[in-house]
Amino acid sequence: MEHEKYMALALEQAKKAKEIGEIPIGCVIVYKQNVIGRGFNTRMRDNNALGHAEITAINEACSALGDWRLEDCTLYVTVEPCPMCAGAVLQARVPRVVYGVPNKKAGCVGSLYNLLDDDRFNHRAEVISGVMAQECADIMKSFFKDFRKRDKMGYIFDFDGTIANSTYLWKKVDRDFFAKRKMEMPPEYADKISTMSFYEGAVFTKTAYNIEETVEEIMQEWHKGAVREYEKNVTLKPNVVEYIRFLKRKNRKVGLATASNPEFYLPVLKKYAITECFDAFADGTLGLPNKESPDIYLKCAEMMGVEPKNCTVYEDIVQGLKSAKKAGMLAVGVSDGRCEEKEKAVEAASDRYITDFSQELEMLLKKK
Ligand code: ZN
Q1: Which of 54, 60, 135, 315 is catalytic?
Q2: Does the pTM of the predicted model rise above 0.85?
Q3: How far is the centre of ligand 1, averaged over its atoms, from the C-alpha of 81 (Å)?
Q4: What distance in angstroms lies between residue 45's CA and the mean position of ligand 1's atoms?
Q5: Tell me: the pLDDT tens digits for 15-68?
C-alpha cells in the first residue's frame, strides 16, 4: 500500500511530462515518509540527454538532504531505469528502487542488465517491480498513440513573406529591372506577378511590357540579382525558426509550398539551419499551376504523406489562403507588415491570422 501511495505521486510527475509533450516518465524519492525529490522527463524541452526523471529527482533529493548519499531513501519511478539512471542510483547509494513497468529496450534493472544487483560494484540496491504497472503502462501507451497521430499532421509554409522577410527583394529586383530599361515599375505589377512562378512571371513581363530580351535572359537577370540578395540580406520572421524546430521535435510533418526555386530559398534555410526540418519541398521546379490553384498544397500534403484535412497552411497572400481552403486545409494568414487594407484582406481570407509565430507556439504548448 505504501508503495502504491508513492508510485501514484511518481505518476503525477509523469503526467507533467506528458502535458509538455515529453515521454511520460515520473519519479519521486522518499525519505522517512517525506517526498524529498521529484522529477519528470524533460529531455526535449531542455535539449538535454540528461533530463531523465530520476536524475532530476536525485538532484533535488541530494540538495534537500545536503548529502550526495541518499541512504535510507526509496526511489519510485514509473518505468524501469535506463543505464544512466541505474548508474546514478549506484552513485547516490540509494538502497531501494521501486518501478512500475519494465523497459525492454533500455532497462538496466533487470531487462537488459541488472546494474543494481552485481556484486562487482560496491553498492547494490533492492528492487521491487510491477507496482501500479497498469497505470504506468497506460500513460506510456496513450502518449505513443498520440505521438503517432501527430505524425499524421502536416504544416505547410509558404516561403517569401511567410517564413522570410523577402517581399521587398523581388520588388527591388523588379525595380532594378525596369530602371535598367528606363521604365517606371507599373503600380499593379507586384500584385500581378505575386502568384506566378518564376517562368510565368518572365513570360508575362516580356509580353505585357514589350521587353526585348528573351524569357531566358529575363530570368537570368532576375536570378543573379535575387540569389545575391537572398544569400546576404534576407532575414526570417520572428520566432519562425523556433516554431518549425518545435513542430519537428513534436513529430509533425513540415513542408514548403512555394512558387520559388531552391536556389533562392535553400541558402536562407541553410543559414538558419532548418533545412532538415522539412519533409517536403513543393516548389517551382515541379511545374505545378500557381497558387490560384490548390494543386501545390495538395502536392505538398501528398509528399509529406499527410491527408489534406490534417494540414495547416501558413500564407501571407490572399490567393494562397483561398486555395489552401479549397484544398480542405486550415489556412493561417501571416502578417507581412503591409498596409492596413492589405493585411485586413489577408485576415479576412484566413481561418486564423497571426502577426508572430510565437502565437502558434503558445497555442500548441497549451494544447500540449
Ligand atoms: Zn534514465
Answers
A1: 54
A2: no
A3: 5
A4: 16
A5: 999 988 899 999 999 999 999 999 999 998 888 999 999 999 999 999 999 999
Residue recorded with cell 526523471: 53
User: Which of 334, 303, 340 minimizes the C-alpha distance to 321?
Assistant: 334
Task: List pLDDT tens digits, range 155-201.
Answer: 999 999 999 999 888 888 888 899 999 998 888 898 888 778 778 99
Q: Ligand 1 centre and the CA of 252: distance in Å?
A: 25
C-alpha 158/C-alpha 20 separation (Å) is 28
Q: CA 293: distance to chain centroid?
A: 27
- Centre of ligand 1 to C-alpha 72, Å, is 21
Residue 240 near residue 163 (C-beta atoms within 8 A) = yes
The amino acid at residue 60 is: E
Write out the DSSP string of 91-144.
HTT--EEEEEE--TTT-TBTTS-BTTS-TTSS---EEEE-TTHHHHHHHHHHHH
Tell me, yes or no, if 242 is annotated catalytic. no
> What separation in Å is there between the alpha carbon of 50 and the centre of ligand 1?
8
Instruction: Print burial letters for 54-90: b (CB count within 10 Å at least 16), e (below 16).
Output: bbbbbebbbebbeeeebeebbbbbbbbbbeebbbbbb
C-alpha cell at 329: 486545409
